[in-house]
Amino acid sequence: MSREVDQRALFERPVLVVIERGALLRSLMRSVLEAQFDQFDVLEFAGHDEVDNADGRNVRLVVVGVAGTAGIEQQSEALRKVVDAVPDTPVALICETDETDFAWTLRAGIKGVICSTTTPIEIVIPALQLLLAGGTYYTTSLLDGVRPHGPRHHSAPASDPAFDGAAANIAVLLTAREQQVLNQICNAQSNKQIARSLSISENTAKMHVRRILSKLHVRTRIEAALLFRSPVDQAS
């Protein structure tokens, strides 16, 4: 009876799955997730098809490492199979490059794309928490093709009213200086880095950040960045 209870508890415990071909990187990813999400079990697999080994477990998030500049294109079929294997579970990609087809990730059902070469751990962990809470996260540069600022590429529409509206609201709500600070927040800059970049004191930077969060009705810096989803143009 005790063994049955233990088995039931094991299968009810929430699980994070890591899929990464490289043994060292896979171990590092597991160690980070175990440290940051200690209420979860973390399972690691080397291949996409091994996700079936988690069948029956309470899988809450699957994180897939994608290597190389053509990684997603080369692994597209395998990635779709991962998404299909866990239809009610968010799948996030950790990519070496941000040159990814945003439209494809949406069609494939990928809920998050994080660029490992440009995204610090201070952003990665909140991004994964956002996915666990039912949200989505796409690295800022991936949205170049659909945001009102910056180049448009891939198969994104020429204009997206939602993004245009977000940009307009930011311009109305925030002062020119606050827009500059938001631009720095979107680039994952700390208060000290913002102060140095804009030649202001760290206390002034903190004040601007607090005002931005209040005006945008969000609680954290990452929520502010995700709300706009791309850096605003810096005021002159």
What is the rounded Rg?
A: 20 Å
Approximate strand percentage: 5-15%
Mean pLDDT: 77
| Strand line-up across the major sheet | 2-1-3-4-5-6
Tell me, what is the CATH class of the largest domain?
Alpha Beta
CATH homologous superfamily annotation of the largest domain: Response regulator
H/E series, N to C?
A: HEHEEHHEHEHEHHHHH
Unreliable residue runs = 145-168, 230-236
Give the overall silhouette: elongated
Which structural class should the secondary elements be placed in? Answer: alpha/beta
Number of E-state strands: 6
Number of domains: 2
Main beta sheet: 6 strands, parallel
CATH topology of the largest domain: Rossmann fold
Number of helices: 11
Query: What is the CATH architecture term of the largest domain?
Result: 3-Layer(aba) Sandwich
User: How widely separated are the two ends?
Assistant: 71 Å
List strands and helices in order, with pairings.
Layout: H1 2-12, E1 14-19, H2 23-36, E2 41-45, E3 58-66, H3 71-74, H4 76-85, E4 91-95, H5 102-108, E5 112-115, H6 121-132, E6 137-138, H7 161-173, H8 176-186, H9 191-198, H10 202-216, H11 221-228
Helix pairs in contact: 8-10, 8-11, 9-10
Describe this structure as you would to a colleague.
The chain has 236 residues and is an alpha/beta fold. It has two domains: 137 residues, Response regulator (Rossmann fold); 68 residues, Orthogonal Bundle (Arc Repressor Mutant, subunit A). It contains eleven helices and six strands. The protein has a six-stranded parallel β-sheet with strand order 2-1-3-4-5-6, sandwiched between helices. α8 packs across α10 and α9 packs across α10. The radius of gyration is 20 Å and the shape is elongated. The C terminus is likely disordered.
